[in-house]
């Protein structure tokens, strides 16, 4: 009776259970089930034995949470096989050709298995052709840019491999997406890793093994170098977020550049100090003649004198090309306004002189026949009657600026003299027209047929050369 009284008093008092024991609700003691409940409660209360301390290490703590307290949060749903369309587009960061293949797909706690053979779904056998995708530290996201198919999502592993998964059913795709995402979260937490996230986003970023400090899933803070945050954001596709210090640095650079530009001396000052000299090649004909105080550039006059002196009888004069390196050397000396002596031994090859002369005319900003005169000369050369054609061409030449007119007269009188030695130099009016046609004139905008324009260019130069005595009045003293 005393034992019954003690038992009844024990029922009336609340049971004090040790921390960590499972608390069970005690019902009324009128049935045998009540006694069973009481016995269970008393057994669980025998917790005076020392409990094993739970390790506070991050890795052990996360594993404990997964196994006990957080099982409902991190335990993924295992999908035991279904045919999905799979395309591997990257292998450890190396791009691969996208080939869709129907694969028997199995999801485990921390892996995704792709099999061509459905019989291999149970486990990864030695020698099997199973593609294993490790989900720890991976990234799962929907994508519409990588494929034109619908219901496509991408898995990027922590080693840089990329997989595209697709299925026609929207519900099926969502089911696999959610299950794989839960598996990624669970395996990443269980491994103690901290997956990289995009700034201001909940999406994970892949761990790129090529980036320093991100080659493993270790949570060691020493390996997480914040210097590479900008490059990581670039891989994630998010816009770069510049800090206040970056903006200050940019403003400082801009201010220094502005000060440098404002303090930079003008072109005129540099020319007066002799640091920059006016060039001959590429200079406008009018500007060059004004600077030299002549109506014919001095370089043109010097070259023509040299050819008249020792090149009239040379085979293929103006047709044969000289050594380009020597021509460029001559051009450099002329641009630097150094003393030029074409009788020097280094300019012994007369084809170098003629090559430099042709280069001078080709590099004029506006050709010897100005742009606005191109079409009038074409219309004049189409005139069938010879006298009318001569008068039309002569009138156009007289309308040219004085430097163009005088330079043209000197050049064609020289070429007319070259024709006088045609038996020795084997040059004809047609050959000279082919050489000097595109050298002395070209349209400002080549909107028409280039071949047709070239024909007119050659014909105009050839006609002026033949009728040079009449056009330039060369017989008059």
From TrEMBL:
What GO annotations for molecular function exist for this entry?
GTPase activator activity
* One annotated GO biological process: signal transduction
Disordered: annotated segments: 1-62, 188-229
Ranges for the PH domain? 88-185
Q: How does it sit in the membrane?
A: Peripheral membrane protein
Intracellular or extracellular location(s): Cytoplasm; Membrane
Question: Rho-GAP domain: which residues?
Answer: 283-472
Keywords recorded for this protein, A-Z = Cytoplasm, GTPase activation, Membrane
Under PROSITE patterns, the record lists: PH_DOMAIN (PS50003), RHOGAP (PS50238)
**A Pfam family hit:** RhoGAP
> What do the Gene Ontology cellular component annotations say?
cytoplasm; membrane
Domain of life, per UniProt, equals Eukaryota
The record's annotation in InterPro entries points to: PH-like_dom_sf (IPR011993), PH_domain (IPR001849), Rho-GAP (IPR050729), Rho_GTPase_activation_prot (IPR008936), RhoGAP_dom (IPR000198)
Polar residues compositional bias, start-end: 1-16, 26-44
Query: Could you tell me what this protein is called?
Result: Rho GTPase-activating protein 15
State the taxonomy lineage: Eukaryota, Metazoa, Chordata, Craniata, Vertebrata
């Amino acid at each position: 009776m005393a034992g019954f009284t003690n038992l009844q008093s024990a029922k009336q008092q609340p049971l004090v259970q040790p921390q960590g024991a499972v608390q069970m609700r005690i019902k009324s003691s009128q049935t045998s089930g009540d006694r069973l409940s009481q016995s269970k409660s008393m057994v669980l209360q025998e917790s005076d034995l020392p409990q094993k301390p739970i390790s506070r290490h991050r890795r052990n703590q996360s594993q404990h949470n997964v196994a006990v307290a957080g099982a409902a949060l991190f335990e993924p749903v295992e999908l035991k096989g279904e045919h999905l369309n799979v395309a591997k587009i990257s292998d450890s960061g190396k791009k691969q050709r996208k080939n869709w293949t129907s694969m028997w797909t199995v999801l485990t706690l921390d892996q995704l298995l792709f099999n061509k053979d459905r019989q291999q779904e149970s486990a990864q056998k030695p020698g099997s052709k199973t593609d294993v995708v490790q989900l720890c530290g991976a990234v799962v996201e929907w994508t519409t840019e990588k494929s034109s198919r619908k219901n496509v999502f991408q898995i990027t592993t922590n080693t840089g491999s990329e997989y595209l998964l697709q299925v026609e059913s929207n519900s099926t795709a969502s089911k696999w997406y959610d299950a794989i995402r839960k598996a990624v979260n669970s395996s990443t937490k269980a491994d103690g890793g901290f997956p990289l996230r995009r700034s201001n986003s909940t999406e994970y970023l892949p761990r790129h093994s090529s980036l320093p400090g991100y080659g493993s899933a270790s949570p060691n803070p020493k390996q997480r170098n914040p210097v590479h945050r900008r490059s990581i954001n670039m891989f994630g596709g998010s816009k770069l977020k510049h800090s206040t210090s970056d903006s200050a640095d940019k403003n400082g650079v801009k201010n220094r550049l502005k000060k440098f530009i404002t303090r930079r001396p003008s072109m005129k000052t540099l020319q007066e100090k002799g640091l920059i000299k006016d060039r001959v090649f590429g200079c406008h004909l009018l500007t060059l003649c004004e600077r030299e105080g002549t109506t014919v550039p001095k370089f043109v006059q010097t070259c023509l004198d040299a050819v008249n002196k020792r090149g009239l009888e040379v085979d293929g004069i103006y047709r044969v090309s000289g050594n380009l390196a020597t021509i460029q050397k001559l051009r450099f000396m002329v641009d630097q306004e150094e003393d030029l002596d074409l009788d020097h031994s280094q300019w012994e090859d007369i084809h170098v002189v003629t090559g430099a002369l042709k280069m001078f005319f080709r590099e004029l900003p506006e050709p010897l026949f100005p742009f606005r005169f191109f079409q009038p000369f074409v219309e004049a050369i189409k005139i069938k009657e010879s006298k009318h054609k001569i008068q039309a061409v002569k009138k156009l030449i007289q309308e040219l600026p004085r430097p163009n007119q005088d330079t043209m007269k000197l050049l064609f009188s020289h070429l007319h003299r070259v024709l006088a030695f045609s038996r020795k130099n084997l040059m004809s009016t047609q050959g000279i027209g082919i050489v000097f046609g595109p050298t002395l004139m070209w349209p400002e905008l080549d909107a028409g047929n280039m071949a047709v324009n070239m024909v007119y260019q050659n014909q105009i130069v050839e006609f002026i050369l033949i009728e040079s005595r009449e056009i330039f009045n060369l017989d008059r003293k």
